[in-house]
Automatic annotation (TrEMBL):
Annotated protein name in UniProt: Hydroxyacylglutathione hydrolase
Domain called Metallo-beta-lactamase: residue spans: 34-249
One of the Pfam families matching this protein, by short name: Lactamase_B
InterPro entries registered for this protein in UniProt: Metallo-B-lactamas, RibonucZ/Hydroxyglut_hydro, Sec-metab_biosynth-thioest
Assigned EC number: 3.1.2.6
Single GO MF annotation: hydroxyacylglutathione hydrolase activity
Record carries keyword Cell membrane: no
Keyword field: Hydrolase
Record flagged with keyword Protease: no
Length: 341
């Protein structure tokens, strides 16, 4: 890769055109998920962007990354020295580590207002989303046994976080601390933000180098859904002169605008595929199995949510219709079957 960067012991440092230092700290978030926490340094600010998942290995990796910044890059910074903590969105692999970080840092926490409630009242978030998810799974065609198993999976690693205070909000268009231009990009998560530092964009989970970020129906959580996501992609594509993007996972994105176009194309192809599948009446469970094949564990839930997001997008825009209205009138809890109009 070309550019003003260094990589020492896995911690990448990038200097923006105005001299802001960006450090990418690798972390193991969950047993099969890696990602990054970012440390941003200027003469007057020391800002942590995201905090990892909160699992012991994630916390150890964060500490190890900060040690490399001190030992290999010669920048004497540690958690007590932070001036702010920015959370890019309300998914636990990005904010779960706050439980540990806040024990060691007095720095204020900032998040977008649509994800503020996730941090300050986390039990409510779990209960309300689980309720909507249960309804979605029932209508998608999951058996009661499968519903219970998937809800257990959803909740299994989410009870380790304790609610915390939020001292500041990340507002669309603001230039926070004179460093971060905030771009609100809902879709993957209601309060998802991308943070622009000069020619660099921190895309978090909104845009990744290789994976098309996971989608879920808006009926479960407002301001998610494929419609919001595609609109946010177009808004990011309109930001001029981004030379490099760093995601919350995967490699740096060397051409952000090409990557956005590829993601849009991918989703439009998937929408066409759903329409093909629905030439005959299909439940979301059946659509998911056709799209993704046999899945196991948490992959079953992710596949169902992804299929549901695309079905919702098409149904809301009049490309799909409910094919079993008579059955639903007699059996309100029966799975919904969708057919192409």
């Amino acid at each position: 890769m070309q550019g003003p960067w260094e990589d020492r012991d896995g911690v990448l440092r990038y200097r923006t055109r105005s001299g802001v230092e960006l450090y990418r700290l690798p972390t193991r978030l969950f047993p099969e998920l890696d990602g990054y926490v970012y440390l941003i340094l200027t003469d007057s600010h020391r800002v942590l962007v995201d905090a990892g998942s909160g699992l012991p290995e994630s916390w150890e990796d964060l500490q190890r990354g900060l040690e490399i910044v001190r030992a290999r890059y010669g920048r004497p910074v540690d958690l007590p020295d932070l001036t702010a903590i920015l959370i890019t969105h309300g998914h636990i692999d990005h904010f779960g580590g706050l439980t540990f970080v806040r024990q060691r840092s007095p720095a204020p926490v900032f998040v977008h207002e649509l994800d503020r409630r996730v941090l300050v009242n986390y039990p409510e978030r779990l209960i309300t989303v689980a309720r909507e998810l249960r309804h979605f799974l029932s209508q998608a065609g999951a058996s009661p046994e499968r519903q219970a198993a998937l809800l257990d999976l959803y909740l299994s690693m989410k009870t380790m976080f304790q609610s915390t205070s939020v001292e500041g909000l990340l507002a669309e268009g603001e230039l926070l601390f004179g460093i971060f231009r905030v771009h609100h990009t809902p879709g993957h998560c209601p309060g998802q933000v991308c943070l622009q530092i000069d020619e660099v964009l921190l895309t978090s989970d909104h845009i990744l180098a290789h994976t098309t970020p996971h989608q879920a129906p808006e009926r479960i959580t407002r301001y998610t859904g494929l419609g919001h996501y595609l609109e946010s992609l177009r808004r990011v594509a309109a930001i001029p002169d981004i030379a490099l993007a760093f995601g919350g996972h995967e490699d740096p994105i060397l051409n952000l605008y090409e990557r956005i176009a590829a993601i849009e194309t991918f989703h439009h192809q998937r929408l066409e595929r759903v329409l093909e599948i629905c030439q005959e009446p299909r439940t979301i469970m059946e659509i998911s199995r056709t799209l993704f094949g046999r899945q196991y564990g948490y992959g079953v839930l992710l596949a169902l949510l992804e299929a549901g997001a695309h079905v919702e997008y098409l149904y809301d825009r009049g490309y799909l219709q409910v094919a079993n209205l008579d059955q639903l009138e007699k059996e309100p809890e029966a799975p919904i079957r969708y057919r192409r109009l």
